[in-house]
Amino acid sequence: MDVNTDRIARIFVRFRGDLLALIPIDSSGLMSGFSLKMTKADSSTKFVTWTPPTYAKPDSFTEKEIFLTASDSDLFFLTIKDLKVKATLTTPKGGSIAGVVFIPGSGPLDRDGTIGPNKPLKDLAWGLASERIAFCRWEKMSYLPLTLPAIQQIYQRLRLKENDTEIPIILIGYSLGGIVAPRIAAASTHVKGLILLGAGSRKLYDSILKQVEYLAAQNSNQPFATREHADLLDRQINIIHSPSFNEETSADQLPFGLPASHWLDIKRYDQVAAAAKLGIPMAVMHAGWAYQTAFHDDFRIF
Fold this sequence. Notes:
- The protein has eight helices and eleven strands.
- The protein is of the alpha/beta class and 302 residues long.
- Among the domains are: 2-38; 58-197, Rossmann fold (3-Layer(aba) Sandwich).
- Strand 9 (169-174), helix 3 (176-186) and strand 10 (191-197) form a beta-alpha-beta unit.
- The longest helix has 15 residues, at 227-241.
- It is globular and about 55 Å long.
- Residues 1-5, 41-45 and 71-80 have low confidence and may be disordered.
């Protein structure tokens, strides 16, 4: 399957169950990612399927698939010509008292947040729509930049589809999405509240180092979580902390080979301070224990 100049190879793999290996191949013929998904290719394999949550009231809302494109509004955010991003609008019958836009974290994710038989974002959409709150969720594409105008267009579409340009918009940001949510909210008068789920309060590169060091200490045998890789990452992050770090710093010296401009933007952005300036209702939630974001660190700082 071609995606712009990239190709994605889908390879059937048999373990104890059946899995589908998704391997994106870039225009240079190099592998740019790897993920495994469950599949129903073998009819003899028994899978648990998603069932609606007990709190959902399916008769009280409707769902409609829409496509987000550059031609939908004046907010031209798509960088890939003619690309259509699939999205689902879940809207209460009889009108909404608010609209919610979900901002995902890093990594691949479909619109339902599918993990095995679980679809937590669909659960969330159905639950909120049952309480007269509209919900917009979309297929996250790793090759499509998730820019500020992109999010703005999504909640603009939600308001237009609801035929109500006055309904308040609530942003729910998870993990990395929670980090950028205050920045998005600051750019719009339509956002009236934030819900931050597992949002890091420290610099992203410092959080990444802590995660890798934790995994290395567990002897996880993952190639990106060895002691050697943790030490390399530590040296690279020290360059970012250095006063001499600037836009001319070579990407070869920085984490994941990403350019200095990327890390400079993260270094200059303080999500906690940005959230404090908003003056809108906000809920901050963290799991009691998680190595990605720590309750005793990130939650308390917020």
